[in-house]
Structure formats: C-alpha cells, structure tokens
Amino acid sequence: MPLPTRINLGAFALIGAIVILIGGAFAWAAGWIGPRRISGGDVIEALEYNGGGQQPGYRRAHAKGLCFTGSFSANGDGSALSSARVFKPGRYPVVGRFSVAGGNPFASDGRNIFHSMALAIKTADGQEWRLAMDHTPIFPIADIASFVALQRASKPDPKTGKPSPAVMKPFLAAHPEVKAFQNYMAKAVLPGSFATATYYSINAFRFTDAQNVTRFVRWQFEPEATGPGLDKKHLDQLPRDHLFNEMIARTAKAPSRWHLRLVVANPQDVTDKATIAWTGPHRNLDAGTLTIDAVGPEETGACRDLNFDPTILPAGIAVSDDPLLAARSKAYSSSFTRRAGEGPRASAVGQHSNGGNAR
Asked: CB neighbours of 165 closer than 8 A, spacing ≥ 6?
C-alpha cells in the first residue's frame, strides 16, 4: 500500500476515534450510558413520595413559608475575604422567606425539624446573591443519592405516622451520618422564634478577594434577639401556625436583626461534606447587619416567584467542591418549573391565599 494511502487511512481512523470519544462523552453527560445519574426531577419525586403526594402550587420542600423584605447593611469588613460588591460599605435591598421543613404546607409548626431562612440580596451593579440556610450547622446527608434514599426510607407509615423500622434501620446502618444528625436534633435547642435562630450556609463556598486570594468560607446569620427554645416535650400542643404568627406579631412591633458572620476554613476542615461541622477556633468576620422590617403572605409578597438557588452568586463568591450544591440547584429548578404551571392555592398560614412558587 502506498505510504500516502496509509497516512490517509490512519488520519480517518484517528478522526473516527475522536468522533466516537466525543459521542460517548456526550452520551455519558446526557445520562444515556453509564450509571444513571439522579436528576432534579428524581429528587422532587422522592420528596413527593415521602410527603404522601403532590401539593400543587407549593414548594416540594419547605412548603410552608412567609415572605419578608428588609436590607443588608455591609460594614466593609467582608471585603477582606471577597471582592463581591455586597461586602462594600452600603445598604442593599433584601427579599427573603422564612419556612419550616417538609412538603405539607398545612403541617403544624410543632415538629422538631429545620427552621429556614432564604435571602436574595441585590446590588446596584446588577449582582445578586441568593442564600438558602437552615438553623442547623450541619445537614443529614452529604450527596444527592443519599438524600433520595433518605426520603424513601423515612416515609411515614400511615398506621404509625413514623418510618418503618424494617426500612429505616438498615438505611441508618449504611448512613451513620444520618444517625449522627438525628442525635444532634434530639439534643439541640429548637428555636422558639424565627427571629432568635442562627441560620447557617451548611455548605462551604469559595471567596476570592481583590488580590485574587481564594479561601473556603461558611457563613451564619446570628440574631440580635434572644429567647427560649420550644418545649420539645409538648410540641404537639403548639398552635398550627405558632412560629409564623409569632413572627408576624413581632415584626409589627419592631424590626428583627442578624449579624452576618463569615467563617474561614482551617487547613484541616472538610469543605465538600455538609455533614461535617467545623469545630474549634476559626477566623471569622462580622460583615454587616441584616434587618427585616416587613413580612407578608406569599401571594402578595416579593418572595413568591423567587427560586432561592444557592448557586446564584456574585463575582467574588463561587461554589465549592461540595456536590450537594449542584444537586440543590437542579432540585430547586425542577421544583420551580413544576410549580409555575400549577397555579396558586389556599394560604398555608392564616387566611391568605398563597401562590408559593420557590424555596
């Protein structure tokens, strides 16, 4: 065979191999080959399974909520860690939402579950920072497959109202981090008001300063208000909307405030697992004050159509290597898309009608 012909055939073979590799990579990315990857829709279906079905028009997680508005006053100290405009001295408008965990928007507040706060902070240059936080410094699972498995394992038995031991026991044996979280929740104080809770980022994020130095950071909003926790022995005696009505009454009297504290990771800290707390002394900065001065039902509140996706970040803040962040983003997007076409429903709090569209 003439040499040029061999070269041409070799070139065609190389091109063919490249096409196959690209096609295979695309098929893998699309989930057509290899292990099936979990989609945002899979997460939503697992949440619906756990909660006993759909609640059209409501969020699939943290379905019961209350909108609020206010401002974040930055003192400038956060700029030592991030070049984000939101940390430069100034006052920035905030839209947010308080909620409790679970997919039932009409459930009682008397449950030992997450109390949550979500925020969207905008700056004049068009940057936006969305935050979705819980009142616990850790999360029960570290990856999305475990989250889906947890929803299925913990589905309440209609006869007992509790998960089946035959299903839950082997799950906990395979997921000791979930058992550790259960133990934490059993001992920790359950906030008596949304206004007296500290809210944690849970995940780590990358903060990059003006000198292009990057650090891993978690944050928390620490309240100025104090007060007793709920009596866990008598949670079933609380009025259904106790936390929400308390926050409405409190805000009618005076604003509530929190200080944003940025916590910098130590070299040994785990940054890719939300199940692991950072313990011991850490560098931390008070970056400013969040003030909430108005609350209202979601059908008239600015939070109704907001998707509080924690991966929507300003320049100077980026996601970390925690896989839970991408999973949260996909699940929030899927939930929002489904709810958008379902229309408003009756209010989960008080007598208002509620359009509830996003966490």
From this structure: none
Task: State in Å, rounded, how far the first CA of the chain is from the last one.
Answer: 67
pLDDT, tens digit (0-9, with 9 covering 90-100), for 29-84: 333 334 456 766 777 677 766 665 566 667 767 789 999 999 999 999 999 999 99
pLDDT above 60: residue 110: yes
**DSSP state letter for 48:** H
C-alpha span between 345 and 167 (Å, rounded) = 34
Count Cβ neighbours within 10 Å for each residue of 116-135 and write b for 16 or more, e otherwise.
bbbbbbbbeeebebbbbbbb
CA 337 and chain centroid, separation: 17
> Which residues are catalytically annotated?
62
| DSSP helix/strand/coil, 85 | helix
Give the closest residue to 205 by CA, choosing from 220, 195, 215, 213.
215
CB neighbourhood size of 158 (10 A): 7
pLDDT tens string 234-274: 999 999 999 999 999 999 999 999 999 999 999 999 999 99
One-character DSSP codes across 164-201: -HHHHHHHHHH-HHHHHHHHHHHHS---SSGGG--EE-
- Cβ–Cβ < 8 Å for 201, 172: no
CA–CA separation, 95 and 226 (whole Å):
23
- Could you tell me where the DSSP H helices lie in 81-164? 144-153
